[in-house]
Amino acid sequence: MKKYYLVLMFMLSFGAVFAFDISGSSLDYSAKVSSNDNYSEKDGEGVLKLNFDNLSLKYSADILNNSSKTDTTMEVIYEKALNNRVKFGVDATLDTANGFEFKLDDDSEKTYLEFGMNKSMLLAIYPFNFGSTVGSEFKTEDITKVYYISGRPTYINGNANGIELGSKTIPGVVLNYRMNKMMNLYIGAGAVEYDTPGDEGFDLTEATKAYSWGKRVAVAYKAGFKYDNEVSVLSVDVVGQDDSEKDGALLKYAAAANLSLEPGNLIINSELVYTQAGEKPYYAQKNKISSEYGYEPYYKQNWVDKGDFAAMLKVGYEVTRGLVPYVSGQYLGENFIYDGENSANRLRAANRLRTVEEFDAGFNDSKSHGGLTVVKAGVKYNYLNATITPFYEYKMAKNAVFSPENDLTAKKDRRVQDLKKTCSTFGLNIKYKF
Q1: How far apart are the C-alpha atoms of 304 and 245, rounded to whole Å?
Q2: Which helix (H) or strand (E) holds 391?
Q3: Residue 168: pLDDT above 50?
Q4: What is the tens place of the pLDDT at every residue in 373-396?
Q5: In sequence order, what DSSP letters do the residues of 250-261 get, joined into one string?
Q6: Which keywords does this Swiss-Prot/TrEMBL entry list (predicted)?
Q7: Cα separation, 308 vs 277, whole angstroms
Q8: Is residue 318 within 8 Å of residue 265, measured between CB atoms?
Q9: What's the CA dihedral at 350, 166, 277, 144 to 10 degrees?
Q10: Across residues 244-268, what is the average pLDDT?
Q11: Tell me: the pLDDT tens digits for 340-352?
Q12: What is the Cα 58 distance to its own chain's centre?
């Protein structure tokens, strides 16, 4: 852990030593404890953001979890306006897992080049990723992230070490049009080329060899608008791609609508997100299809090639300046896929079976939550530069997917029939602005 503390101390002291202005910087910390009877699960994350003139640094670490592992990332973003019409940004990451490796983030939408065509129109070019996530509370993964078999091997699933996958996000261009002070619209498109076996009907469940290789092109699109009149904000975003049957993508389409209202002291936030799963998503862990416990190259779960939605309504009331109690309700459909812990491909019965044989044999065809309802209550308190938000969350699933055990270590006697349909969570979020 000393390595992470050294990086954190360096970032905190960097601005002070060289007398940089770091106003607008922030330090975020979140932690939660989930419980059900005698079951508990802990998790937490810390994020430090430092902003300088044209440079911003972001350091994040999972600093508390049951596995005692710490995942860290460090992001460096440089943005600069060359004149009143041209602006660019570069996003890089610093990998601290194996020493210090500094490299461009080749799936980031924060590397871009903008051209102001006139007072109303802005053209942006994204060489790596033209921005393919939607949603806020139910934020999706990149819809335009495509996968391919890495290295063009002749022999494919005969490798005991598994099949290595490469991945790309789709680059593209986005045209923004500002109609007036309140309304902004955008439309974008992009394409990417990736390797594919030469046989048009190639299927990893049947094929073991690929004697010829070719190229395929995946095309993506996006569109949306945002209306902001200071009292209410409405935004709609749509993203999709056309080749999920071949490129192994988790999602092929997603749309989101967000509405925020602030009439008087009342604060209302709502979100509706729809996702359409890919036609043939790869069943891979960390970009690798393993054959160690049964060869399953594709997801076989019930959500594949299906669409579903998630909805959220949150209502708060500012009792006094800086003090806002709130309540919220959420519903996630049985086949709803997004980048969160309650996604239908993650919150499943077999996720709680921690013996290797049970997990690998049952995960791909196990039941999901079947439909999830989440009720949440909390208090947001602002004091000086700090924001403190304690909260309580109660989850109710149609199917039993929550473990009753004391921990998440291997239990040979754990079975699906021991799982529960409800789970409680206590949490705390702290944010400090410099």
Answers
A1: 11
A2: strand 386-397
A3: yes
A4: 999 999 999 988 899 999 999 999
A5: SEEEEEEEEEEE
A6: Signal
A7: 9
A8: yes
A9: 140
A10: 95
A11: 989 998 888 765 4
A12: 16
The DSSP result for 176-206, as a single string, is EEE-SSSEEEEEEEEEEEEEEES-TT--TTT
* d(C-alpha 191, C-alpha 172), whole Å: 7
The structure tokens listed for 160 are 């005991």
> Which residues are 44's β-sheet partners?
31, 64
Phi, psi angles (nearest 5°) of residue 296: -130, 90
Place of tokens 């949490």: 427
Give the C-alpha separation, 25 to 58, whole Å: 10
Residue the block writes with tokens 């919220």: 328
What are the two backbone dihedrals, phi and then psi, of residue 154, each rounded to the nearest 5 degrees? Answer: -80, -45
CB 27 within 8 A of CB 431: yes
Which pTM does this prediction carry? 0.86
Residue 322: partners with Cβ closer than 8 Å, 6 or more residues away? 381, 382, 383
- Rounded to an integer, what distance in angstroms lies between the CA atom of residue 393 and that of residue 204? 41
Bridge partners of residue 420, in order along the sequence: 402
State whether residue 10 is helix, strand or coil: helix
Q: φ and ψ at 7, to 5 degrees?
A: -65, -45
What is the longest distance spanned by two Cα atoms in the chain?
70
Closest CA to 70 of 14, 170, 146, 3: 3
DSSP SS3 for 9: helix
Q: Helix, strand or coil for residue 25? A: coil
Tracing tokens 């069943």 back to the chain, one arrives at 283
At 206, is the pLDDT very low, low, confident or very high (cuts 50, 70, 90)? confident
Looking from the CA of 69 toward its CB, the CA atoms found within 13 Å total: 3
CA 395/CA 416 separation, integer angstroms: 18
92 CB-side CA count, 13 A: 11
Q: Which of 79-83, 198-202, 243-247, 265-269 has the highest mean pLDDT?
A: 265-269
Work out the pLDDT band at 126, boundaries 50, 70, 90.
Answer: very high
- Alpha-carbon gap, residue 341 to 372, rounded angstroms: 12
